[in-house]
């Protein structure tokens, strides 16, 4: 994330960086609202199913993606 934001700053300047940060905040707010959570801590505990390239990448590195699908909300 930091690399992406730094690249935005270096290539497009401060105004675009600020716009990108606001866009990220808005997207996180929409996700949290859709999931019915109020804090980042709650968001960290929402069960999720990981699929596709991300699943394959994690599996190849020995990370059990089933643990994410079985985690409990507070």
Automatic annotation (TrEMBL):
Keyword Isomerase: yes
Ranges that cross the membrane: none
GO molecular function, one term: isopentenyl-diphosphate delta-isomerase activity
Superkingdom: Bacteria
Gene3D superfamilies registered for this protein in UniProt: Aldolase class I
Alphabetized UniProt keyword annotations: Isomerase
GO BP terms: isoprenoid biosynthetic process
Keyword presence, DNA repair: no
Annotated source species: Mesobacillus boroniphilus JCM 21738
Protein name: Isopentenyl-diphosphate delta-isomerase
């Amino acid at each position: 994330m930091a690399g992406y934001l730094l690249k935005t700053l270096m290539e497009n300047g401060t105004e675009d960086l600020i716009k990108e940060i606001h866009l990220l905040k808005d997207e996180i707010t929409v996700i949290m609202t859709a999931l019915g959570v109020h804090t980042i801590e709650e968001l960290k505990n929402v069960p999720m199913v990981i699929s596709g390239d991300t699943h394959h990448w994690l599996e190849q590195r020995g990370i059990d993606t089933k643990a994410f699908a079985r985690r409990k909300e507070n």
